[in-house]
Amino acid sequence: MCDVKFNVSETAWCPGCGDLNIIECLKSALEQSGKQPHEVLVVGGIGQAAKTAQYINTNGFCGLHGRSLPPAAAAKIVNKELTVVVNTGDGDSYGEGGNHFIHNIRRNVDITHFVHDNQIYGLTKGQASPTTGIGHITGVQTAGSMNEPLNPLLLALALGAGFVARAFSGDKEHLTKIMLEAIRYKGYALVDILQPCVSFNKINTFQWYSKRVYKLEEGYDNTDRLKAMEKAMEWGERIPLGILYKTEKQTFNEKFDFLKGDKPLVDRETSLEKVKGYINEFV
Amino acid sequence: MNYNILIGGAAGQGIDTISAVLEKILKRQGFQVFTIRDYMSRVRGGHNFIQIRFGSEQLFSHTEQLDGIVAMNGETVEYHIERLKPDGFVICDKEIQNPDSRCIGLPLKQAAVAAGNSRTAGIAAAGSVLELLGIADTETEAVLGGFFNEELSDQNFKALKEGRKLVEKRKQIQAAAEDTSILINGNEAVALGAVAADCKFYSAYPMTPSTSIMDYLASKMLDAEIVVEQAEDEIAAINMAIGASYAGVRAMTGTSGGGFALKVEALGLSGMLEVPLVIAEVQRPGPTTGLPTRTEQSDLRFVISASQGEFPRMVIALRNVEDAFFQTVRAFNLADKYQLPVILLSDQFLSDTTVTVKPFDLSLVERDKHIAVHNYQEDKPYLRYEVTPTGISPRIIPGKNPGVTVLVDSDEHDESGHITESAEVRVQMVDKRMRKLELLKEELQEPDFFGNEDCEVLLLAWGSAWGPVKEAVDMLNKAGAKGRYGALIFGDIWPLPEKLIREKARNAKKIINVEQNATGQLAAVIAEVTGIFCHDSILKYDGRPMSSQFIYEKVRGKV
Prior knowledge:
The complex is a heterodimer of chains A (283) and B (559). Chain A is an alpha/beta fold and 283 residues long. Helices cover 34% and strands 16% of the residues of chain A. Chain A has eleven helices and eight strands. In chain A, strands 2-1-3-4-6-5-8-7 form an eight-stranded mixed beta sheet, with helices on both faces. Chain A is globular. The model of chain A has no long low-confidence stretch (mean pLDDT 97). In chain B, a hairpin with a 6-residue loop joins β2 (32-38) and β3. By secondary structure, chain B is of the alpha/beta class. Chain B has helices at residues 15-28, 74-80, 108-114, 121-133, 140-145, 150-165, 186-196, 211-219, 221-224, 234-246, 257-273, 300-305, 321-338, 348-352, 423-442, 466-478, 499-507, 521-530, 548-558; strands spanning 2-11, 32-38, 45-55, 66-71, 84-93, 103-106, 182-185, 199-204, 227-230, 250-255, 277-283, 314-317, 341-347, 354-357, 407-409, 448-451, 457-462, 485-490, 492-494, 510-515, 536-539. In chain B, α3 (108-114) packs across α4 (121-133) and α10 packs parallel to α11. Chain B has 19 helices and 21 strands. Chain B has four domains: 2-165, 3-Layer(aba) Sandwich (Pyruvate-ferredoxin Oxidoreductase, domain 3); 184-364, Thiamin diphosphate (ThDP)-binding fold, Pyr/PP domains (Rossmann fold); 371-443, no CATH class; 448-558, Rossmann fold (3-Layer(aba) Sandwich), CATH 3.40.50. The chains are: A alpha/beta (283), B alpha/beta (559). Chains A and B meet through β2, α3, α5, α10 and α11 of A and β7, α7, β8, α9 and α10 of B. β2 of chain A pairs parallel with β15 of chain B, so a sheet runs across the interface. Chain A: InterPro entries: 2-oxoacid:Fd_oxidoreductase, OFOB, PFO_beta_C, THDP-binding, TPP_enzyme_TPP-bd. Chain A: GO terms for molecular function: iron-sulfur cluster binding; metal ion binding; oxidoreductase activity, acting on the aldehyde or oxo group of donors, iron-sulfur protein as acceptor; thiamine pyrophosphate binding. Chain A: Keywords: Iron, Iron-sulfur, Magnesium, Metal-binding, Oxidoreductase, Thiamine pyrophosphate. Chain A: Pfam families: PFO_beta_C (PF12367), TPP_enzyme_C (PF02775). Chain A: It comes from Ruminiclostridium hungatei.
């Protein structure tokens, strides 16, 4: 054990930004997970949310816009001892990185994906994101966003994700609990975290979310995929929060003996004796 | 003395198998082999051919003139008979009618039926070729066992013997020495080099002609414990490799020019994060889809300048199969030492050409990973981007040093990896990254030189042109052609090693660049770096590889 903590440093986020609560909850969840900072890797692409790794004392990988999932998955594959947590935005996850979102659900590497979903592009100052509602006027979508918003939870469920949840940055206790469960889940876990963007989203505000969100009732059966899909389609006047769906699935590493064995891949070496045998196959 | 046999037919007619069996039989008899593959981008039909050149001496190039043709269809005869020597032969089924007296129509189909499998006609033809040339096949059962299951192996063995019965011996060819070689192509050599270097992660998206690197590694995935992941796209492939490398294993991706174009932003990421990465770029003619299954050397200027911004990178052009193996190992060592991307530039010609070489000597393989350790209680705080005199900062593996975390960022960052917009730190970090080149330049390998030390005519080439140019220079000097000939063939190409080119250019009266592209990219790079200009160019960009004969004739035409 060492005495290094998951300290959060001063951020460059706007006062009132949902990210401020999210990073605080992330810190709590990581503390509760029993992990130490050097055992955790926080990965982000580009965007305001993607800067999370900059502000929390863990290993951090801030890569390219849209490309947070591929390096995160690869890092976990080669070192299963790392707890890998992706923190990045709706544009990064569902727009530029949409293809990786789809295929990493299929890959099912044991990583956690926290999408800070404020339904707008913050870093580039307020253009529509894949989750922006129809009619939402921005500097680019001057007549209002015309495209059907992407439903990340429904998409994840359709693709067979084993852990699909929604949380709200305004309910820290609930968010922390969901984050911890997602981190502990074995496999790819998606948490779409609704958050206000105080600077660029004047429609989906803190009040807007607060009025609509409700927690899934006790006794909700989160092993029923069809029921979860129904809940995922609930949007508008009422928006459900909680773990919509959770099931056990074989992870990527569990599919290969050499990746699930006692030593992570990073501690294994291919012997030259073995290579000699391979060369002899060309005789 | 060496011989040149062409095996041709439509895609799906089994010419790959026929030639693979024939090559291996020849190799096991002690012959040196050099085989090129010319195939179309289709799964059935069209016209594909393979040329097996073999002899007792080591071979460095294919050649145009043919000693024999095995024709699996009539087209093969029509397309290639012009190149057949006057005393050459065509082996084909008797149903293929051709008035040329060199055509030997044989009942190959009946031979196959007699062997118990109608699909063995091509192997029967291979038997006829061996018989005509008077070549023994003492290890054929073992060779066939490497390709087929027992039943098929037995049928093919019988077919080969049936094929032998169909013709009379014309020659009696024997190799000068016993077989001590391996038979391998460029992509297999790159893949083996990666395994030898302890590469543990290969992510790629299938793209001709690079795919067989992934195929080979995948065949060893479980035994060698290498993750081979077919990514959802080229961008994912390179970003995954970077993530794996950051986490501490040796990682690689491979593609051709089109895929490399998609990977470019992440190439810069490897440079900015200073995460080691090896990328194999197996060139084919572009732009865009170009000629998917053919060869070109037209991505040199692209790969040395790809990506926005400036950062150090290394580009190594692979010159031959042996080089492909050892340079791949070296690429991993350099990537780790300098924490930068190393691009291995190959092409379809090298990747698909099988040759006999000495088995790779593993005592020459070093694995220099340059991984540091850090104790947070005793050492000063860990800085991923510590400014050092060499520009190289100690790299540790995340998770392996209790109390120590590793932060990397594609934004400009300070020594700790945190985002900065400080003008001062920006300059410090650019200088730190670029400074790594100074040390790297000291260990660059000068180009290979062939020919007359005091050459008046200096040929400049790079990568896979190595073999054909080397052989062409020999031919030129032996032919007593006027002038004395030499050639420099670059492997390390970016940064450009400058010593030998400056030295040789001083005495040369005529410098000619020999390249498989339309614009003379090596000549342009040399001019940019050294101020040395070529006087003339030999450029080929029809998608077909240059032979030594081609280069010889072109040079003779210019001097």
